[in-house]
């Protein structure tokens, strides 16, 4: 097993879900200090490491989306892919951190920017204010080998809430459940035909003319396509199982939400998924993920969504459209954790990165991604810096199916080493 994979295995045993990654922060700070790197940690827990006179900054985030059994991870390798049993793996973005650890073992004169809480709204990146010295930043958060990312979507989380009240219900009582769907990343996987558990549940209730909703708990994370959704309902007619939907009759006779019918209609009418395709880039242009719906015991309803678009105007349009939609159902709406799109930019640096990718993989392609990369936020803070993003092949991030191709990790690391050398030689010539 390579040193990078060994480092990654170490990381998998240190819990680092978003918002609760202090143990990993402490580990990484100690790791860097032991290898002679200068260390700074800011108020939002971003980590900045440097040694010597660096000409390149490597950037990644150190939190992960915890799904299933995570952060308790038991990894295994199958046909060249590393996976975790019943859990998200955290290769997004832990494999990048493992590469950085290997470079620190080698004593490379580099800057490293390790950002906090990327997976819950690019929180760390939004507050970065270190005195970065390098003219170039290489982000290591992309998920397809041999591709150089030079642009990304902007996004915003849109939440809707309202207070309902409970009234007497009638008829049969059922638990209606959609469980164990595959899930996926709400950006890069939104066009892959992955079913949303919330939409499957909503369509079943709508088609069976269920109007009495006692409770609902659906979805896992704002940036994950929902894999699970459960509702307690009352119905005048009998309900039965269908594909993906399991129905269980209950003996309870609970009260129901007075506006439960409107909530079910809202789920039915919500346009989850891709709203527009970017033909030039070959990726979604605008999308929205209906991520989480919950109702508490006092009748408080909360809906959480994440919208993405490849430019600011379209992000504003989908935001206003969603706001108006929820308003029609009496919800109070908030826009949270907005981050900018990274406009595709070809530069001498992206060309250099592309050449090194070509030399290792025998092919290269400049791309934009329908997901948030921290480059967009950081580029606004460091306008003179040039950016590119690469990474090993990772499939189904933000889900319990997450896997990383180990050969791709090694080859991508070879590209990183060559980029480091080429940038250093270029700076010496200048």
UniProtKB/TrEMBL annotation:
Tell me what this protein is called: M20/M25/M40 family metallo-hydrolase
The family database entries (Gene3D superfamilies) matched by this protein are listed as:
Zn peptidases
Peptidase M20 dimerisation domain residues are 177-234
For this UniProt record, the keywords arranged alphabetically read as follows: Hydrolase
**Can you tell me where the transmembrane regions are?**
none
Q: Which SUPFAM superfamilies match?
A: Zn-dependent exopeptidases (SSF53187)
Q: Does the keyword Protein biosynthesis apply?
A: no
Q: What is the lineage of its organism?
A: Bacteria, Pseudomonadati, Campylobacterota, Epsilonproteobacteria, Campylobacterales
